[in-house]
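Repro:
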Amino acid sequence: MAETDVLRGPHILEYPYKRSLGPVLSRFFTSLADRQFEGIKTRDGKVLVPPQEYDPHSGEPLSEWVPVGPGGEIVSWSWVAKPRKKQPLQHPFAYALIRLDGADVPLLHAVDASSESKLAVGARVVPRWAAEPKGGIGDVVCFDLEKR
């Protein structure tokens, strides 16, 4: 069969499902609905945000919660000049790794900055909370550069 004889058509593969978040992510998202961030402490004292149920090095269960943030600093970032439809903001913005105050591990989220030139490693950011929280990561619309 010649290449021109092969029929082609669009195909969308989906597998929608719901899952239990478990006790750790449930608490984290409940905290976000209350406009607070919480991390979880490992045996060696590192604070993980987002929290994990088990220590990534030892595999031990983790249970010591600590408040973190709400502000933090940019550890790394990448500018999105032309956002796509499903991205968190519909104007240019950055995805950034943000180390919240009191955390040792950065969190990936969007930063709304008026231009790429305003961003820098070490820049301080604060969360912009959703008007109506739902108990998910979307309760943080994005982060904004801290006004000094």
